[in-house]
Amino acid sequence: MEDASAITSLPDDPQALKQIILNLSHERDENARQRDERTCERDDWHVKFLRIETELLRLKKWYYGPRADRLQTPGDVAQMLLAFATELETRPVNPADLPPADRCGTVDVGTVRRVRRGRRNLAAMENLLVIRKEHDLPEDQKPCPCCGKMRQRIGQETSWQVEFIPGHFERIEHVRIKYACAHCEQNAENPQITLADKPVQPIDKGMAGPGLLAYIVTSKYADYLPLYRLESIFQRNGLEISRATQSVWCGDVADLLRPMYDLMVRRVLQSHVICTDDTVMPMLWPGKAKQARMWVYIGDEHNPYNIFDFTLGRNRDGPATFLKGYKQTLVADAYGGYDGVVVGNDITRAGCWAHTRRKFVDAEKSHPAIAAEAAGIIKRLYAVEDRGKEVDVEARLALRQRESVPILSALKNKLFGWRDQLLPKHPIAEAVGYALNQWNELNVFTADGAVPLDNNVSEREMKRIVLNRKNSLFVGNERGGQTAAFLSSLTSTCRRQNIDPQRYLTQLLTNLPTTPIKQLEQWLPDRWKQRICSPSG
C-alpha cells in the first residue's frame, strides 16, 4: 500500500520526475562508491594486518626460531608424521631395546633404556700421541696365595683413555755467535767480525713466534674468540698478553700475508662462476658505530678460495671495484647495487632460488595454500639438482634442460595466476613479484651447468663474520676491517680445503718472509695440502 501511495504521489511534471530519477541515481552511485571504499579500506586493513603478522613472524623466527626455511602448515606436519610412522612400522624391533615388563606382563612406558651397539670407533684416534703405562702387581702380591710360589705372567688386558694436556708457552732463546779474526786484530787491522744469522721472523724484532701468531689468528678468525677472552686464557697459562698487543700482531700478520691475499684475489677473478654476499660489519665511529660492510666472493672448484672484502658502505662501488674486469657469471641475491656492476662489466648475473623460496616461506601465514604449492614446486627443482651433483657439467646441463625447464614453465604460469588473484601489497604477492622480477636471473642455471641453483655457499661463509661480530661487536677502524678481511679469507679457505688453519698458518708465517714472489703459489692452501698429503711430502 505504501508503494502504491508513493506512486500516486509522484508529480505529473516530466522534469520533476527526471530530477527524482537523477537524484536516486546519484544516491545509488554514492552508496556504491561508499561501499567500494569500505571494501577497499577493509581489504587494505586486512593486507596491512597480514604484512604486520608476516613481519612479526619473520622477526620471531629470526630471534627465537630455527634458521631453516621450513613451512609450518598443518598439512606439512601431518605429512612428516605420516612419513615417520611409515618408516617406524617398517623398522625391525630389537628385543634388547624394549623396556622390561612388570609382573602382570605390561610394559613400563616411563622407562627408556638407550642401548649403545658396538665399541667406540678407535680408528678415529689413531693420529693421537700414544703414551704406554703398564700397571703391574706389587712385589708382595706376586707369590701364589695357595702354594707361595712366584706366579708367571700369562697376558695382559688393554684399555684406552683420552687425556687433554693444556697448551703452554715456551721461551726460545736465540743466541747468535760472533766470530772475529785474532790475527787481524793483533796486527791492528780490520778484525772481520761476523755475526751468525738467525731465521727471519714474521714480525721483525717482535716477541711473538709463528706458532703463537697462528694460534691468535686461528682463535679469533676461525674459532671466533674475541681477544679479551684470549687475554684471560693466556693469563691462566702463565703469560699476560694484552688484547691491544694481540690486535697489533693481527695487523702485522695481515700486512705480511697481503701478497698471498692478492694472489688469491687474482685466482678467484679467474673463476667461471663467483658467488657473493654481504653483511654488516660495524666500525667504531664518532657518535655512533658506522654500518660498514663485509663482502665475500667464492671462487669455483678450479679456484677454490674464499675472499672477504671490507668496505665502508653498501654502495655498488665495493663490488664494482673488486669485480673490475671480470666478465663471467656472478651468483647473488636481488640487491639492486649489483645491477650497475653487471651491466658495466658485461657480467652474467644468476639469481638464488633459496631467496625466492624464503619469500614464500616468510609469507606462509598470509596464504598457506599458495606458499605450500610454490615451495613444493621449488622443491622439485632441488630434487633434480640432487641427482645432478655427481655428474659433470655437460650431463648436469642436459638434466636441467630435460627436467628443470618444464618445472620452471609450470611455475611461471602459476606465478602469473597468483599475481592476478592477489592484492598488490599482499605478502604472497610480494613473493610472487620478487620471483617474476628476478625470473631471467633465476633461469640462468638452465643455460650453464656450472651455475648453482642458489647462493647458499656464500651465505654459509657469512656466518663466520656474523659469529665474529657477535663476539667482538665491531672493528676499530678501516685498517681493522681490512685485517679481518685478509685473515678471514685465509681461515675460511682452510676450512674449505679441510685443513688445520693453525698448522697451515704456522708453516706459512715461518716460510713466507723468505719466499720469493714467483714461488708464492706453492703456499696457496690447496697447493700446500697437495704437497703435505703427497707420499714425498
Bin the strand percentage: 5-15%
CATH architecture of the domain at 253-350 and 457-533: 2-Layer Sandwich
Low-confidence stretches: 101-113
Number of β-strand runs: 7
User: What class would the helix/strand composition place it in?
Assistant: alpha/beta
Radius of gyration: 36 Å
Distance between the termini: 111 Å
Q: Helical segment tally? A: 19
The major pleated sheet works out as: 5 strands, mixed
What's the CATH class label of the domain at 253-350 and 457-533? Alpha Beta
Mean pLDDT across all amino acids: 84
Give the CATH topology of the domain at 253-350 and 457-533: Nucleotidyltransferase, domain 5
Shape: elongated
Helix content: 40-55%
N-to-C order of helices and strands: HHHEHEHHHHEEEHEHEHHHHHHHHH
Strand order of the largest sheet: 5-4-3-6-7
What would you note in describing this structure?
This protein has 537 residues and is an alpha/beta fold. Among the domains are: 253-350 and 457-533, Nucleotidyltransferase, domain 5; 353-454, no CATH class. The protein is 51% helix and 7% strand. It contains 19 helices and 7 strands. The protein has helices at residues 2-8, 14-64, 74-90, 182-186, 210-221, 227-236, 243-256, 258-268, 317-322, 337-345, 353-362, 368-387, 393-421, 427-437, 439-442, 456-472, 478-496, 501-511, 525-533; strands spanning 178-179, 194-195, 273-283, 290-298, 306-311, 329-331, 348-350. A 5-stranded mixed β-sheet has the order 5-4-3-6-7. Strands 1-2 form a two-stranded antiparallel ribbon. A hairpin with a 7-residue loop joins strand 4 (290-298) and strand 5 (306-311). Helix 11 (353-362) runs antiparallel to helix 12 and helix 12 runs antiparallel to helix 13. Residues 101-113 have low confidence and may be disordered.
